[in-house]
Amino acid sequence: MPHRVGYCCINVTLGKQKITTGRTLRQASFLQDTKLERTSSLALQNAQDLITILKWNVANNVQVFRIGSNIFPWNSEYHINDLPDITAIVTALWEAGKIIKESGMRVSFHPDHFVKLGTTKDEVARRSILDLNHHDDIYTLMRLPVSHYYPLNIHVGQNFSQDVIDRFIERFNNLNQSTRNRLVVENDDKENAFSVKQLYDHIYRELNTPITFDYFHHTFHPDGLTSYGAAHLAATTWDCTPLFHYSESKNLNENVSGNPRAHSDYAFKTIDDYGLNIDVDLETKAKELAWFKYQEMV
Fold this sequence. Notes:
Number of strands: 8
Helix content: 40-55%
């Protein structure tokens, strides 16, 4: 098959050994951490555990992996150079980047849903810009090339309108240049939000920002395109191998009621790449366990 499949953020197997990149602390505890000692210690542990996870990926031939976004707790509230352990953190991230490059693994980031460049709220926009530039800083510390091959994926995440488009473009242009050169946008899962076609017509044509095709999201907002057509349209926007997202409905596959947009624990179908050479993030809740099961299917 001309596509590679990976998993996202959390390794359940290693998590049982308390290996994680998501250590954090409560807001009250962070505010009391005036010298950033506790925050710094957690960031260092997260960076060191990233190395362990990447080595596990290499040993198990995982070639596509999304890195969790919480390596630095409360990252918008300080500059990472102010952390007491910054030298050790930089060393750990450099080693992580070395593993990525030497193994040929493709990694990505997908910042949290609060990142909204098209928002009407100036404070949300400010924090969104800080957060995106922060992710770019991590890529830089890992010494990974500035390109869409190591993407920084976001949603517009708001209802489709020209005002949202205009604000998104304005805030995009306020990002660091290297952040802009990594940014990609993903289709949303609501009919009043941004489809692949709308992203193509109003974001890509203006900014040359590649489109991440999400198979599952497209089923909620096809906007007149088949899945095949949307995938091919999105693929034309990439200047390297496209990175797509795949998941399935928890309701349909696991016989439960609830939010139809909820992701299933496992994939029950093989991914149709529609003849495209793509990489895919498997956005299933069972993480690497779902990845193992998927390998058995293909």
